[in-house]
Design goal:
Chain lengths: 219, 787
Amino acid sequence: MGDLNIHALRGVDLDLFPGEFVVLLGPSGSGKSTLLNILGGLDVPTSGQVWYLDHNLTEADPAELTRYRREHVGFVFQFYNLIPSLTALENTVLVTEIAEHPLDPRECLRLVGLEERLNHFPAQLSGGEQQRVAIARAVAKRPEVLLCDEPTGALDYPTGKVVLEILERVNRELGTITVVITHNAAIAAMADRVIRISSGAIVDIQRNERKAAPSELAW
Amino acid sequence: MMVLDKKLVRDLWRLRGQVVTVALVVASGIAAYVAMRSSYESFARAQQTYYTRYRFADVFVHLKRAPNSISTQIAAIPGVASVQTRVVVEVNLDIPSLPEPAQGRLISIPERSIPILNDLYLRQGRYIEPGQRDEVLVSEAFATANALRVGETIGAVINGRWEPLDIVGIALSPEYVYEIRGLEAFPDNKRFGVFWMSREALGPSFNMEGAFNDVAISLAPGAIEAEVISLLDSLLEPYGGLGAYGRTDQISNRFLSNEIVHQRALGIFIPPIFLGVAAFLIHIVLSRLIHTQRAAIGLFKAFGYGNSSIALHYLKFALAAVLLGTLAGAPLGVWMGRGLARIHEEFYRFPELLFAPTWQLILSAAGISSGAACLGALSALRSVVALPPAEAMQPEAPARFRPGLIERSGLSRHIPLVMRMIVRSLERRPWKAVLSTIGMALASALLVVGLFIYDGITYLVRVEFETAARDDVAVALNEPLGSSARYAILHLPGVLRVEPFRAVPARLRFEHRSRRVGILGLDRERELRRLIDRNLRTVDLPLEGMLLSSSLARLLGVLPGDTLTAEILEGKRPVRQVLVTGVVDDLIGTSAYMDISALNRLLQEGQTISGAYLAIDSQVAPELYSSLKRTPAVSGVAVREAMLASFYSTIARSLNISTTALISFACVIAFGIVYNGARISLSERAHELASLRVLGFTQREVGIMLLGEQGLLTGTSIPLGLLMGYGICAWLTYIMQSELYRMPLVISRQTYLVAALIVVLASVVSGVLIYLRLRRLDLIAALKTGE
C-alpha cells in the first residue's frame, strides 16, 4: 500500500481583519480544521504562505510557532481541554503567567459569568461551565486572535447558546478577531463574515449585513 | 495464534520501554537471588561434604606436653570416637621472595598416609616419604600467595637451628579452610601458612619424642560435647592443657560458618526488594494498560469473551515481562554466583570447586518471580473483571480532582501553579506516590548499604591499624622470656622503640558464663598500641584490674565494677579474682587487657614478656627482617604495612566487586521507577500536555509539569532512603557482629552523597528519555478528541 497524498486545502486565499467575528462553515472532512490548525500555528502548509502581521508563519520553526501561539492566539477546544488538576481560576491564571499583558483572571471569569465558581475543579463543573472557563482562559492573555474549534459541539442547545453569547461579548468588548469553526450553519448568522469550505477549497465568502444576536439563533 | 495473543505481542512491543525496565528489575532480583542463594547453598554443601569426607574433628585442645600414653585415657572418655594426637608448633620461616619473615605452623602427620582426623587433600605433588625428614606439605593458600611450587625449598628456624624444608606436595585441610593466624580479622596468606611434616621429624626437634602437644577428637553419635570437654580439660590440666573447645570455637570453622550465615541473611534480604519493586512496576504498568484499553475490554466482553480469558490475557503480559527478566537474570545470577564463589575460593580453600547452582534453585527463582508478577497484576486484573461492558465502551469521565491538602492548608496562593498541579496529582493517587517513594528509597538504601560495607571495613582497618595499632612490626616470641629480651630486641638493626607485651591464655568466668580468651598485658606508658573507646578516645589501663573488649563483656554479662574469675592456662595455672574496671570497643577479636606488671604479678612470675611492638626505621627494615628471620626465639613477625597491603589487595578488591553489583542494581531500580512513573504519567496526561502546548507553553515548561512529579518523588525518596539505608546497615552490623570482628556502624558523608547522586543521575537519565518523547506529542489530536 503506497502513501497517498491528500490535499486537505487547496488554493485558499483569505484575509482576517481586526475585530472581525468569522464563522468557518463546512461539513466534516472539508478541511476547515486544517485551516484552523494553520491559522493557529499548529501546522504549516506544504505550499503557499501564511502571514500574521509581518510574521511569515510559513517559515517559522516550532519554537517560533510556539511563541506565536503564546503571544497572539487564544484557543477554545470542542472538549474544553481544561487542566483537571487546576481550579477554574487556576486554569485561567496559568495562561496569564506566560502572557505579557494579561487581563485579570477573575475579571475574565466574571466576563463569562463564573465569578461564583472560581475555586471549582473541572470535574465539579458542567460542560457549559467548563467551556466558559476555557473561553475565559483563552481571552485572559488578551490574544489578537481567538480560534474556536466547534465550541458548542459537545454542548446541549441552551448551553451552546450561552457559550456563543459569551464569544460574541468577548469579540465586541475586547475587539479580538474571533474565528469559530463549525458545521452548524445556524451559527453563521452571528458572524461578520461567513466562509464556507468544501473539499479543501473556499466556496463562498459572505458578509452579513446584519449580525444576529446569539439569542436569535435556532437549530 | 489466537487474536488475543497477537494483541499481546503487539502490546508488548508497543510498551517495550516499560516491559524492558520491568524485566531489568526482575533480572536484577533474580540475579541477586540466584547468585547469593547458589553461592550460599554451594558453600554450605561444600562445608558439609568436606567436613564429613575429610573427618573434620569435633573437639580440639592444645597443651604444653603430654606423653603418648595419655592418648589411651583420652580415648576412654565416654563419647570420644577417635583421637588424633599431634605436635603443633609455630616457627619462623624464610621465604626467598619475601623480605620479612613469615610464620609457619608445623603440624605433625603420620609418616605413612593413613586416614586421620582433619585429613589432608593433596592438591599437587605427593605425600611425604618415610625417613625423609625434611619433606613437608604446604597449605595451598600459602603456596599460592607466595608462588611456591612443589620441589622448592624454604628455610625455617626449627628449635634454634635454620633448617631447609623441601616442599613435596600442596595440601588442604578441613581445619584450615580459612587460614588465619589467630585473632585477626583478615587472613594474611603471604605471611602465615600451615605445613605438615612427619611426626618422626617434628618430635625430636621440639622435645616431643613420645609426646604430643595437640589433640583432635571426633565424637561418637549422641555424645555431649560439653561433657567431653570438661573431662578432657581435667585430664589434660596437669599437662598444661589450654582448654578444649568444640567446632564452634575452632577459628577456621567459625569464620566459614559466619560467612555462610551472612550469605544466607543477605540472600534473604536483598532479592525481595527487587521483586517487590517489580511487582509494583507491574501493577502500575498493567493498570495503565488496562485503563487505556477499557473500550477494547468492553468490546471483548460484549463479543462474549469470558472474564477469565481477558484477565489471563493481561496476566500473560505481566508474566511475559517477568519471564524476560528471569531469562536474563538467571544466567546473570549464575555468572555472578560463580564470580562470588571464585572470590570466596581465594579465602576459603576447598578440595573441589565450590560452585554448583541447582535446577531447583533456578526453578524456584522462576516461581518466585512469577509470584511477584501475579501479586503485581492482582488488583489491575480485578478491575478488568469488575468492568461492565456497557460502561467500558463509554468515554471516561475527566480525572476527578477535589479540594485537598493545599486548599485546606490555606497556602494555596503562595504555592506556584505547577507545584499545585504536582501535589494534587500525587494526592489523587496517594498509594502510588507512597509506593513509588518507597521503591526509590530502596534504591538509595541499597546504595548506602553497598557503599557502607566498604566504609565499615575501611573504618575498621583504619581504627585497628592506624589509630589503635601504630607499631611497624610486632614480634612474638616462642616462649615467654625475661625482660632483658626487651633490650635484645632494641639492639636489633633499625629498631627505634620497643614496647613489650605479655600474652597468656586464660579462662574467664562470671557467674555461669565462661570464655577462653587471651589476656594481653601492656605497658602503661606506651605509644604503639592504644586501647580506644567508642569515640576513639584513648582508654588508660588500670594499675590493677582488667579491661575487657565490649563484646567479651557482653558475652560474660560483666559490667565495669564486677569481679570475675580468671583461670590462667599456662605456667603455674593460678586462679584469681580480677576486678573489671572498664570496657574497650575494639573491633577485632575478644580480649582482656591488663597492665603488664599487674599481669606478671597475677601470673606469680617475674617481668616476662611474650613479644614486643616495635617502631622501626624503614630504611633499615630489610636488615631487621633478615636478622629476625634467623632469630630462634622469634616465632612470628607481623608487619603492619604488609598486612594493610594484603588487606587492600584481597578483601577490598572483592568488596569493590560486590559494591559495583549493588550500585548497578540500585540504578536499575531508580531508573525503572522513574521511567515507568513518568512514562505512565505522560500517557495519562498526553492530552492535557498537548493542550498546554497548543496554548503556547513551550516543551520545557510542559516537561517541568510532567517530570516535576517524578522529581518531587525522587527528592522525597532520597532522605527517606538514606535513613532506611542507615537502618539496614545497623541491622547488618548487628547480625554480622561476632567474636571475630565487629563491623562498626560508620557511614561516611561521602556514602550518603554518592548514594543520593546516583539515584538523582538515574532519575535524570530516565527523565531525559521521557522528555524527548514530549516532542512527539500530537498537538492537533488534542484539539479534536475528548479525554
